[in-house]
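User: My advisor, Dr. K., asked me to get a structural model of this assembly before our group meeting. I'm new to this, so sorry if the format is off. These are the inputs:
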Amino acid sequence: MIRFVGAPRSPGEWHAPEGSHLPLDAVLAKATPRTGQGLRTRILLLLEVLGLPAAPDDRELLEALASVLEPVNRREMWLALAVLTGVLPDTATVVSACRAAKLDGALVALAEALGRSWISEHDAWPEVELVVDRVVVDLHHTSATKVATGIQRVVRATASRWYRDHDVLLARWTEQYRGLRRLTPEEHRRVMMGPEPMTLTVESDPVAPPQAASAGPAPAEATIVPWRCTIIVPELAAERERALRYRALAAYSGSATAIIGYDCVPIMLPETTVEGMASAFSLHLAAVAHMDRVAAISDAAASEYRAWRSMLTGSGRRGPEVRSVPLTAEVKVPTDAAMQAARDLLCVGSLPVVLAVGSHEPRKNHLAVLHAAKMLWREGMEFALTFVGGHSWKSETFNAQVQELQAASRPVQAINALSDELLWAAYRVAYCTVYMSVHEGFGLPIAESLASGTPVVTSNLGSMLELASRGGALAADPADDGAIAGALRRILAQPAYQERLAEEATALEWRTWDEYAAEAWQFLVEGAPRR
Amino acid sequence: MTAMRVESALVQRLSAVSPFLLDESVAYTAGEQEDGAGSLLDALVRSVSAELTPARVWLLCTAVAGSFPLADHVRAGTRFFSISSALEATTWILDYGLMAANTKAADNPTRVVEGSVVVDVDQTARHGAKTGIHRIVRQVVPQWSDTHEFVPVVWTESAQALRTLTPAEHHQVVGGEQDSPSTESSEEESVSVVPWRSVVVLPEVPLPDACDRLAAMAQFSGNRVVAIGYDCVPALSADMVPASESNRFAHFLTVVKHTRRMACIGATSSTEFTGFASALEAQGLSEPVVRQIPLPVQAPLDDLRTGWEKTAHDELPLVLSVGTFEPITNQASVLYAAERLWREGRCFELLLIGGGGWTDPVSETVGRLKRAGRPLRLVDKATTAELEAAYRQAKFTVFVSVHDGLGLPVVQSLEQGTPVITTNYGSTAQIGGGGGALLVDPDEEEELVEAMGRLLVDDDLLMRLRREIIERPVQSWADYASELWDALVVPELEPLVSENRAQR
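Assistant: The format is fine. Below is the predicted structure of the whole assembly, which you can bring to the meeting.
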């Protein structure tokens, strides 16, 4: 929350001599031309969106403003605060302004809120754009990066199609998470990089612990104030300010709010996430608790969100509607050159290639895969093992073991990143892939391997079992190294079995990203009633 | 610690676990050796390798390092032992011991307790903590002491191992609310406790470091861990608690997922832990049995005239609200309702007992109201006697927290015979539903204004609520403690004891 710090730039405008706040009419009467103009413009904007006539003079303008908050209610207070201050208010700000309005009148409450706001602190009037009755998509992270984690692949694939097929406003948060703003052309391009981004960097967990908003004033950016909109958050909004403002927005802006739900790992499996993630993610969930819809990326992810939602009733909250809208996979046929490059990269003589895709974090359970491989090599089985994925937290043991095995001349390697095309080729070059994650919201590498016609050895749990059950895969208990070795042994020792699984994989049908994007839109937007 | 002492401590710890890891004949031979730890360790490593389970690796790691291993260590050890020679395995375990050695506590004699019950009273005993949770521990554990056998334990300073209590710590748990005797006693006099095929009871929410080791113990050691469930506030209402608390609580959830049983203190707690448990099957884990055993609300004093009716006629009626000043307790809305009523001309004094929490949303309002001469009093620390006196003096109390598993101020108010206005969902609604309470939506402050306004003038309603309190079913801590033991400990202990007997 932006708090009033130090002396105001223009104390005469906002404060009475004894230090208390002036009511808004007194502020307006004493205001400099700049402040007066700023205030009047915004009050007019507010009246306009609420369908009230413009008022000819200050007195009537303020009377009209006061009437908007008669009786005092949090929804119109949210709107008034957002429009007047140019900052999307958090819940505490809305609630305390409502209390002040009920005790001392709306004009006193608003003047007080303005006096505490960024505006009086910096004497700045960032532009406000009121957006009514539109679909707004929050692309804060995706528009800022070219990196493609699992989440960003999904966000680009959906947002670009939604933009193509519907009237949507693409937005992101301002520098200090004061509010939403439009994308710059450069940011827009980053989102539209297309359904398949240029490079795959399987960089760490899909969600790194978010950075706190940096201190100090940032250049004024026009704030979007969404009113009676539908707001879709397809990425994880876990920054403190962003989450707190979303909580108020979901509850009071008259907008329907919805997210794509990837998983609840930071609270359901906190032992697999980096310290600090639990609080950030819990804060995000505290906002989602007031939202309308969660499109979960698998049946298993939906069950997880429903488990969380059922926990909310103990504190009087209902939580959002949760529906499974399973992700899909789309791979392209790689060029011959890419296939050759992948062979050069992965093949060791004529050994069958086992490919493991995923960042080297504990949840991916790479140590178990390494151990199973060790067991098999000791038995005399012959195969080459390649890991593709970025370094992540707690990957030191993994790196050390890979080096140790390499020193012992075992055919194992770890590659940090591959372009999409090379990755698709790698899937095809591989004899099978192995993906023994402890827990996943979906399991994109499983889907991509199967879509490439390559069998997968994967976990017999949750979303991974969901994918494996369709065919082309062998499922084993990720907590049982012997079972992992057994599954790999079976597929490596029996080429006929591998072929059968490969045929099953090839026969699988995958929805296109077009279909996924349409189905998600259907639930997130069209299924959402206006409140 | 000198090398000799290190070695003799190591020999002591290895000898302590030998009966549980070695065949009797081997154990005997190893005990005869006089060449220090070497041959005993060798025998233990060979035995663990020959019959390799994560539980046996856990116990060996514990003995070698003098501290409980983390889950990663147990996994790594089990993996390494499975493909290594005895010599390689011995090297690994010695490396592990050097890395993980708990030098401070490793000197204490180690006792392995098998087929027993171990109760972790760490914060109550060691820190004299006095929050709602620790009040419950001080009620329950002394009751258990009278009727059951168990080993109370605390964590070592480094939170890596369990040990027995010092006399002073023991007094903190069973000595009631008086101050503990001043005799300083240290960790050095105590005995390290290693539970083996035992029931480990967690009546508190342990500290994060201890949680990581407890999680590994619950998952791998074969001990059966059971716990009291209070609430999941830090995971579900992170907007209302400091981030550090959400992060700490995540460590406890990791323990919860490997527990066998959870006894939840009320409706909120039971909803939350049941929901959490329902997500575990998809992680390949078996759900703990989650049961609700609501905390007791004891009978109020018979003499109701000790209360507010004794207030002199010229004194203002007292409205009491107990709770820290932080967003979750919602004291700001109590101040708002009071201000509304004062402005309407109602006469009453508002007493807030609690003081500042992690962030203070009310001090500004408090300052303004005081400057305006409103009859508002703040007390940030009160003894139990002062607190009880305040509850008795109050005409009614207010506790409208937005999220609370315990509802302690509701219980305390009812136990002093004083009606309470409280939150209309979760545990507070459950307790209040038994009589003596008005329920309001804490998010609709006008409901609070109305309820407080009514209780200030409607003496019929007030008397009805007071009668309801007297008519509440009587519950006792003895009943609660015994129900808790029967629900958490008995079903886990009995099969363990018979299994242990069969193994002998």
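One thing worth pointing out at the meeting: The first helix of chain B runs from residue 3 to 21.

User: Perfect, thanks a lot.
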